[in-house]
């Protein structure tokens, strides 16, 4: 029919697709094993290490750096007040060396230690979500699962620690999509690192695939759950892992279990990714310039910025990035808590802008 919006592939059909798995090229394997150390000054200038390195007195093999030197790259954040309207969807792209992997490889959760009551009698396992937690930990190999990663953010880079973490997904070779509230808007000095296919503290492909963030562009929702709570981050150098596409969510897809959500929730297995498939979007609310995409998928802290996506004939497209949860009022007197992903034009425009400008 004219004007009809193409629906995603139903999960019942997706399970019949054959995954196309190939080996990573040898030159990429060599790159993966190299760990690069990046340093800059507190004001963001690059560093000539030969001029600032000194042998530490009395300690063999230890190098001291000038106190004004920090590891990493100081990033810049710009609010998106005038991102142009995208003309159509942003297409996905598997890497040349890998085909599609339609379902991830299941893994096991990291078992957290049991907590003992003060009486010493009973053991307590911390609650995760109300009701059944339907998320599954997976091993992030293959496209597009290795395009999802963990973001580490520091608002005090000289401290050597991280302020918080979130989730993100590649939307080009050198940019990721995440939630706007993952970006430290207004911070005088901040740094961030993206680790694709993060698993037990590092990328499954090796430290050579970690990337510092050099800048961010997006919407500052001031910590509020919002349909425009989205941002893109530019990476210091490209990755060759492929990337997701994006689409503007259509209400014609409401009520069907097309959707998968991924992230790094601390309550599930924070150092390993989790996914939940068969998610139903039950409603959307306009939240200019974005769209609140509301669903009942299981999402908890650490999943922020994780993608909500489905498959089409040309590959996976993201329609939302996780923002938070809110109370929805139901006529006449009821209410319920729902999870909200930021989507609509705000998301698709940012993805298209990042590809055109970075």
Task: Give a description of the structure.
Strands 6, 9, 18, 19, 20, 21, 22, 23, 24 and 25 form a ten-stranded mixed sheet that branches. The chain has a six-stranded antiparallel beta barrel with strand order 10-11-12-17-16-13. It has helices spanning 11-14, 26-32, 49-52, 266-269, 345-357, and strands at residues 39-41, 54-55, 63-64, 69-71, 76-79, 105-106, 115-116, 123-124, 136-139, 148-154, 164-172, 175-179, 191-196, 198-199, 202-203, 211-218, 230-235, 245-246, 259-263, 274-279, 281-287, 290-295, 307-312, 315-330, 334-343. The radius of gyration is 21 Å and the shape is globular. 9% of the residues lie in helices and 35% in strands. It folds into two domains: 1-35 and 74-358, Beta Barrel (Thrombin, subunit H), CATH 2.40.10.120; 39-71, no CATH class. A hairpin with a 2-residue loop joins strand 21 (281-287) and strand 22. The protein has five helices and 25 strands.
CATH topology of the largest domain: Thrombin, subunit H
- β content, as a range? 35-45%
Low-confidence stretches: 113-118, 121-128
Number of domains: 2
SSE succession: HHEHEEEEEEEEEEEEEEEEEEHEEEEEEH
Give the overall silhouette. Answer: globular
Helicity level: under 10%
**Biggest β-sheet, characterized?**
10 strands, mixed
- Alpha plus pi helix count: 5
The CATH class of the largest domain, by name, is Mainly Beta
Mean pLDDT: 84
The tally of strands reads: 25
**Straight-line N-to-C gap:** 37 Å
CATH architectural label of the largest domain: Beta Barrel
Structural class: mainly beta
């Amino acid at each position: 029919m004219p004007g009809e919006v193409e629906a995603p592939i139903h999960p019942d059909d997706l399970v019949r697709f054959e995954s196309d798995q190939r080996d990573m090229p040898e030159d990429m394997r060599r790159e993966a094993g190299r760990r690069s150390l990046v340093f800059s000054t507190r004001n963001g200038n690059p560093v000539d290490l030969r001029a600032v390195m000194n042998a530490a007195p009395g300690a063999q093999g230890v190098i001291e750096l000038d106190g004004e030197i920090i590891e990493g790259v100081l990033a810049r954040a710009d609010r998106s007040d005038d991102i142009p309207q995208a003309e159509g969807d942003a297409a996905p792209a598997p890497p040349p060396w890998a085909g599609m992997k339609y379902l991830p490889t299941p893994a096991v959760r990291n078992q957290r230690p049991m907590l003992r009551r003060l009486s010493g009698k009973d053991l307590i396992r911390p609650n995760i979500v109300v009701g059944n937690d339907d998320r599954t930990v997976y091993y992030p190999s293959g496209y597009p699962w290795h395009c999802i990663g963990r973001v580490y953010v520091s608002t005090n880079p000289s401290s050597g620690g991280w302020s918080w973490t979130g989730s993100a997904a590649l939307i080009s070779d050198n940019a990721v999509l995440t939630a706007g509230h993952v970006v430290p808007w207004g911070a005088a000095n901040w740094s961030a690192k993206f680790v694709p296919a993060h698993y037990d503290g590092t990328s499954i492909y090796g430290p050579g695939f970690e990337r510092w963030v050099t800048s961010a562009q997006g919407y500052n929702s001031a910590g509020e759950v919002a349909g425009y709570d989205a941002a893109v981050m530019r990476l210091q150098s490209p990755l060759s892992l492929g990337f997701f596409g994006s689409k503007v969510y259509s209400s014609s897809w409401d009520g069907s279990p097309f959707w998968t959500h991924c992230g790094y929730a601390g309550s599930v297995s924070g150092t390993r990714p989790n996914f939940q498939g068969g998610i139903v979007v039950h409603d959307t609310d306009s939240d200019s310039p974005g769209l609140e995409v509301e669903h009942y998928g299981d999402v908890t802290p650490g999943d922020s910025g994780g993608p909500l996506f489905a498959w089409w004939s040309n590959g996976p497209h993201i329609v939302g990035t996780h923002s938070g949860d809110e109370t929805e009022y139901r006529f006449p007197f009821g209410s319920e808590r729902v999870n909200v992903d930021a989507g609509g034009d705000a998301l698709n425009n940012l993805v298209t802008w990042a590809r055109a400008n970075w």
